Automatic annotation (TrEMBL):
This is Uncharacterized protein.
Length: 187
């Protein structure tokens, strides 16, 4: 049933593919579908779920020790990490931002909330690899990108990478262009 729905979606997308981006994202999924048809039945296609406590570990490692040493603080950190798929997103955002923008519990709570629903850091890494550093050095800019990355599966990000690799670089070097590519790929 899943393959039938995917085939129908891909077929309908082919009919409406009017731009080069749409055509490239269609090509990516068509090739992916053909690869799935050749895969062995029963092969596990799921990605492993990361350790649910890794978000809290990342936050406590980055904060000064006195901010994550009481039961109330630890409970607060674990609560703020709900909805996070491990600690990859939080760790990547902390690395991207200047340290003064991620050195309090309130700032970490904002980061963890923005990372909720973002699978790993692949989508964020995709944006970071295409945008100049000055377009991704403030909390607002980072949070805007994370908003686009919410619920973006690995396949959507792989499709976006494939599409941008096939396009001339000037068609994948602004935030709006990257968002359009992600949307074309199904996000």
């Amino acid at each position: 049933m899943k393959w039938l729905i995917l085939s129908l979606v891909l077929s309908s997308q082919a009919l409406f593919a009017s731009s080069e981006i749409d055509q490239l994202s269609f090509l990516y999924y068509k090739n992916k579908l053909n690869g799935f048809e050749k895969s062995i039945e029963g092969e596990d296609q799921c990605y492993p779920r990361p350790d649910s406590s890794s978000c809290a570990k990342v936050i406590c490692e980055k904060l000064p020790s006195y901010m994550c040493d009481s039961p109330d603080e630890i409970r607060q950190v674990t609560t703020m990490c709900r909805g996070n798929y491990g600690g990859d997103c939080v760790a990547r955002v902390i690395k991207q931002l200047p340290s003064y923008q991620s050195d309090s519990l309130d700032e970490m709570k904002d980061i963890a909330n923005q990372c909720s629903g973002v699978v790993g850091s692949r989508c964020f890494d995709f944006f970071a690899s295409k945008l100049p550093a000055y377009q991704l050095d403030s909390r607002d800019e980072v949070f805007e990108v994370l908003g686009q990355c919410k619920n973006a599966s690995y396949d959507v990000v792989d499709c976006a990478v494939f599409t941008c690799d096939k396009l001339p670089s000037y068609q994948c070097d602004s935030r709006d262009e990257l968002i359009n590519v992600l949307k074309s790929c199904g996000n």
